[in-house]
Amino acid sequence: MSRRTKNMQEVDEVPKKRRRTTRISTSESEDENDESLESSNKENESDNEELYYAGNRELICGRIRKMHLKNFMCHGNLVMEFNPKINLLVGNNGSGKSAIITALAIGLGADARTTNRGKSTKGLIKNDESSCSIEIHLTNTGIDAYDPEVYGETIIVYRKINASGGGEYRLKSESGATISTKKNELKRILLHMNIQPNNPIVILNQDNARAFLKDSDGKQLFKLFMQATQLQTVLDKLNICYNIYLHAKTQLERHNRGLDIQKSQLEKHQAELEEMKGLEVLKQKLKRFKCDRAWFDIGEQEKVKRIKNQELAKIHEETQKLLGLISNKDNLDKQVNDALAQFTGQIQHKQESLGDLQGEINSIRGKIEEFNSKIIEQRAIVQRVEDHKRRLNQEIQTIEVSLKDVCDMESVRQLRQKNATSLAKLIEREDELKSLIENASRDLDMLRQTNLKHEEKQESIAQNRSIIQQKIRNLENQCARYNNSRSDPLAAYDPNMSNFVRRIEQEVKRGGFSKPPRGPIGQFISVPDKKWRMAIESICGGLLQAFIVNTDKDRIKLDGIRTREFSSMYQFPIITQKFVETVYDINEYRTPNVSRPNDSIEAPNVMDVIQVNDPVVMNCLIDQLGIENILVCANDRTASYLTKNQQSVPRNLKKIICVAPFSEYYPAPSYRSYSLREQPCRYIQAKVERQLKSAIANEQQNLKPLEQEIKLVRQQLQSTQTALRDRTNELQQYEKSLRETRVKIDELKNYEYPKEDDGEFLRQELEQLKANVAQADSTRGEESEKLIEIEKNYKQFQVTLDILKKKRQKIENEITAIQRQSDEERSRLYDIASKVNEAKAKSKSLLEDTKKARLEYEAISNKIDKMIEEAEKLGQRREISLDRHSLTRKIVEIDHKLRETATPTMSIPEMEELVQLKKSQYENNCEIRDSFESTLKLLCESRIQRYTYLKHLKQYFAYRVRSKFASVLKVRNMNGTINFDYKNRELELSIAPRGDKEKTNTKSLSGGERSYSTIAFLIALWSCCDSPFYFLDEYDVFTDQVNRFVMTKLLIHEALSKNDQFAFLTPQDMSSIEANEDLTIHRFADPIRGNMGTSANDSEY
To bridge 33 with a disulfide, which of 4, 77, 159, 702 should be the other Cys (CB 3.0-4.6 Å)? Predict the structure, then answer.
């Protein structure tokens, strides 16, 4: 359905704008065609930009911006740019109009048969040409754009077709870079943009258009309706779902029959188990009677036997001590780990206390700074009082002088001149001090910022240093652990790998696997030449840790062992592969070694670089990695030479791994290269201890510049703080001088010179000034006491700060001590592991001694049994409940019964395990059956709901098409409707011509009325289809000039009312239609006749 719908307007209301046409022509000569295309591009470049970017018109993604055809049908080299709204393609038959629609469908992935142009795409190649190409530019703008960060505003779809039958797709970005070569990517783009190249009303080719306009068959119209609305596609999908449902139902019935068989087998095995348990009772009786007979007499060799028993007891006691040490390892480890956890908690607690203490220190520092400011302020107050007193004394001296000179007016005039000169100098000094203060303030701000940066840098470097120190400790711990497990080559994979392998070997001996599993794969691979080891480990990757099993049953068995007993090894993969005891014969497909000494080119095959002593492992590497098609080389020059040019690529090459620089190269035509991360070998002949020591040395080397840098930063910080203090004192001196200068300026400005009658007044003022001096002395005493009190508090806070700093240093020392204890506990943990390893080795030796002593003990016991047998022949007996004859008779009877009974093929535990397995399988299959039945029920209900929804959707589309069809007919004063016969899948158009009230079918209409009604039906179908563009070929083939004009106007009006792109193809004269901003007329040149096979316009396409 359309997303954009507008009310229908009269056809004649379409505004006429300035004419815009393009003329399309093709040429044999590639050079001539390129020149004509270049000139055409220059002429239409501004017009095309105006078409695509004029105003605020919204660009909908999926529109056709440009098409470029090479050697396609009749076109040798054609470039055609489209209007985003309406395009009218005009040209005589044979000029290549229909080839545009064919190229559009083929380029967007449609089948050649849907275009009615042949059964194969290679038939669309121009005569005498080996290939053709189609390039379609799709707009990719707006909110629905497809991956715009990758493709940009234009997606270029390129398809090449070869005469041999092959071809390729390329999806390019706006810049022309190839993004993908897969057709699935094109399908995703078409689905995202809702482009339907196989929809007959989206791309209506010439043959379908003629059949549609001419044929009024109801079944064909109904089929067109179903295809246009995509209802047929939905129905086909639902039918496929129904077939899947039927198949699943059949599978369920087969599964139920299999459950019945499983149940009968389970009952049979349970009966066999009960019978075996009865036989086991007889075997126990036989064993008891034989035991009684064996211990019937005890010989004279008891002393020797007792000595051997004592030796065994002594060995056993010593063994138990060692085993106790081994078994107590977990407790010791737990104690050490608990201690480590306790130390960690203490460190965290201390660090929290340290953080709180740092907060207090910062608070005290704030108060110290506050009191420091108060001291400076109070000192300034005392200084001001002193300055005031000094000024008063100066005034007193001045007045006393004035009293002497009150009658000397000449001295007054000289004093005025002197004071004026002093005032000018003081004002000049004031300006100078202001400039100095401003510069000093700016310098202080810069110094504070510099000081802050140095502090942040110091903190950052300290953190990095702490991180590197922690890395060094971790590496040292790893090195210690490796030294404890140096004798175990599998420890590089996992600490429990050896135990896991031994557990697999035990299960193999018991017959738990069809064939012994192989793993880890890395232990089967060796690389004699060490320069290739890193490359081989990079190629194999995680496969080196994998295990290989022969069957799914073996995989389940191995996974069960791993899950139950070695849960920490869940990350090691298990590969199921049928074991073949000989290496595959891949000589036909293998990439050969490359050896050209003259050109310094050497690239061996991976299979020649590695040594694998197990054919199963080698076959796994071939299957999983394709190593037969991978080469390795020493430098990038060799890799680039062998992959960049397709002519130089060795046969079947998959990729090349380059050692220096470490990278991988993929061959042309998809040439590309990627850098790889260099990592030391960990599994293939890796020297772990050397790597760990090298890593420790590297980290220590990295630590040295940090130490130097933090030392330098501290020096810079100290220098900055010194400069900050000096500059602060300098600023205070400048401010003090400025205050004094301003006071002097005020004094000179306010200086009152004596008059002849001022003697008495000066005497009174002198008395007042003396009183003020006395008051200033009193005020200075009070402010001095305040200053002393503030300085006292300042010193107390300084003392408190020193105490807190000492506490902080104490806590830091305690943290260091705890860390040292933690390191000692870790060393103790490694010592415990070393002792346990020694105890294991010694216990193994003692177990061998125990075995030897027990053999001697058993030899003596056998000798005693022989003596007992001889003694019984002589009549010597021990007191037992039965005599030897009775014991022997019972043994014979039981043995006879056991011989008459068939020997079971397996033991009771094995049979119990089999019964349990069968029972588990039966229960699991029952659960699967129940889940399957519920799923089938849900699938059936969902299918019925979808069929019902499809029915409603079909009715809605029918109503919408019928309504749109009637509204289009009313434009020409015609009445009509559409009758749907869903049962017979037929559709009939009932139309009443102008002036006629009775409706009839289209066969009774004139040619123009029939064509108009068919176009109305097409427009009605458009209302139910949402596509970015619509292409219609020869819509006016069966109409006269008048009806052609009316239909063209109608289609143009409909196109203007929708926010989609339209292209109409016609061989008729369209001079009555004028081009405008929304309409471009493309005129094709007349075809050149008489030059078959070489002309671009031989026949109509």
Answer: 77
- Per DSSP, the three-state class of 548 is strand
pLDDT band per the 50, 70, 90 thresholds, residue 804? confident
In a domain, 769, yes or no: no
Among 137-151, 217-231, 944-958, 1000-1014, which stretch is predicted with the lowest mean pLDDT? 1000-1014
Query: Model confidence over 52-73: pLDDT tens digits?
Result: 433 334 457 899 999 999 999 8
Closest CA to 225 of 825, 1014, 910, 801: 1014
The reply to whether omega before 520 is within 30° of 0 (cis) is: yes
Name residues whose C-beta falls within 8 Å of residue 606's C-beta, 6 or more positions apart in sequence: 536, 539, 627, 628, 630, 631, 632
DSSP 904: P
Pair of tokens at residue 1010? 């029939």
Q: Read off the tokens for 869.
A: 């047998």
Strand stretches in 480-619, DSSP E: 525-526, 547-549, 574-576, 594-596, 601-603, 611-612
| HEC per residue, 1058-1086 | CCCEEEEEECCCCCCCCCECCEEEEEECC
> Where a domain ends, among 635, 651, 679?
679
Statement to judge: residues 608 and 667 lie in one domain? yes
pLDDT at 820 over 80: no
Does residue 712 share a domain with residue 637? no
Q: Assign 686 to helix, strand or coil.
A: coil
Residue pointed to by tokens 């300290």 = 462
Identify whether residues 572 and 670 lie together within a single domain: yes
DSSP type of residue 518: B
Strands 547-549 and 525-526 turn out to be: unpaired
The most distant pair of C-alpha atoms in the chain lies apart, rounded to whole Å, by 170
Query: Is residue 84 domain-shared with residue 119, that is, in the same domain?
Result: yes
Q: Does residue 454 lie in a domain region?
A: yes
Distance CA 216, CA 299 (A): 118
**432 and 544 both lie in a single domain:** no
**The token pair that represents 5 in the structure block:** 């719908």
Q: Looking at the chain, how many residues does it have?
A: 1101
Instruction: State which amino acid sits at residue 112.
Output: A
Number of domains, the chain: 3
Considering the domain architecture, whether residues 130 and 78 belong to the same structural domain is answered as yes
Residue ranges making up the domain that contains 545: 516-679
- The 3-state secondary structure of 498-517, one letter per residue: HHHHHHHHHHHHCCCCCCCC
> Exposed, middle or buried, 763 (CB in 10 Å: 0-12/13-18/19+)?
middle
The mean per-residue pLDDT over the stretch 883-896 comes to 74
**DSSP assigned state of 567:** G
479: domain CATH number is: 1.10.287
The dihedrals phi and psi of 1061, each to the nearest 5 degrees, come to -100, 135
Query: Given a cut of 50, is residue 1093 above it in pLDDT?
Result: no
Distance CA 1015, CA 1005 (A): 14
d(CA 492, CA 411): 107
In a domain, 798, yes or no: no
Say whether both 176 and 150 belong to one domain. yes
